[in-house]
Amino acid sequence: MKKLLLMLIIIFLAAGCTPAGNNTPGNNSNNVVPPEKQETLTVHFFSLGKADAILISDGEHRILVDTGYRETAEQLTGRLKELGVSELDLLILTHFDKDHIGGAAAIIDSFTVKEVLQGGYVKDSSPYKSYIEALSRRGLTAKLVDRDLERSYGSLRLNINPPAEKEYEKDPSNNSSLITMLAFQDCSFLLMGDAENLRLKEYAELAVKSETNVILKVPHHGDYHKNLALILDRYHPTASIICCSDSDPEPVEVAKTLALLSQYGSTAYRTSDGEITVTVDQGKIMIHQ
After folding, report:
1. Which residues, other chains included, contact 133 with Cβ-Cβ below 8 Å and sequence gap of 6+?
2. What is d(CA 145, CA 92) in angstroms, rounded to the nearest whole number?
């Protein structure tokens, strides 16, 4: 046994191996210069039926835009935990329809949320009341976005645009959606909430055109709105994401939207076919479903 041990020691030394943690100058493991950290952006469009919930992460910062239905809150919180989320730098609630704020209370209760942004048009509903109660439990105060707001997280740049009107005569809740433009490297994401014709025209006229590749989150779950053409004409999105179910909105309306997107050469993806993940790495855009 002693002879075998001696032979193993000789072989070990002959191979030039050094024990872990050896700080001798010749130990290459202590002289390796780590490669420069490469920033990657990942955006998850969750599959929750006709509802919005979008996670934005650069590995260090995490932003959630909308929270789906109350009925899918457990599914959403579970998926976020699977992705390693314990803290959100920012929660954006585009407007107060139940398919956008239904899971807000669960998110606020389940994760550390540093900041909450919301629009000003309030719908007095059960999900809204639950959201307000959750803010109170956690000692949070949501910030009202009533003028263009900028946020930066590392290389992430966000512009959050509020509606021009306090209340629209037609479809006031949807047209009051906050619209977020997210810029990262050579790519931008345009997240339009449930904006309908009035808000689409307004944004197309006021917004600064992005000169980078644009990924569009199609407004109002892919329901057809003629003024979407104004947005497409301005931004020419490389790809478009529709957060919908198989039957809602009406398939005939979604088909009209898909035809319009096709006219502008924008490849369409639907969350009714499963979760969509967009990755931006050194200017390259990869879409997985």
Report:
1. 105
2. 10
Give the CA count within 13 Å in the CB-facing half-sphere of 238: 15
Backbone dihedral region of 16: left (phi > 0), alpha (psi from -120 to 50 degrees) or beta?
A: left
* CATH dotted code for 38-288: 3.60.15.10
* Count of C-beta atoms within a 10 Å radius of residue 203: 23
Alpha carbons 167 and 209: distance in angstroms, whole number: 26
Residue 241 — very low, low, confident or very high, per pLDDT cuts 50/70/90?
Answer: very high
Coil, helix or strand for 112? strand
Residue range 23-51: mean pLDDT, rounded = 66
CA distance 127 to 191: 22
Coil, strand or helix: which one is 33? coil
Exposed / middle / buried, residue 214 (Cβ in 10 Å: 0-12, 13-18, 19+): buried
Strand intervals (E) in 23-135:
40-45, 54-57, 62-65, 87-88, 90-93, 112-113, 116-118
Sheet (strand 54-57) strand order: 143-144, 116-118, 90-93, 62-65, 54-57, 40-45, 276-281, 284-288
Looking up tokens 């050579």, which residue turns up?
A: 186
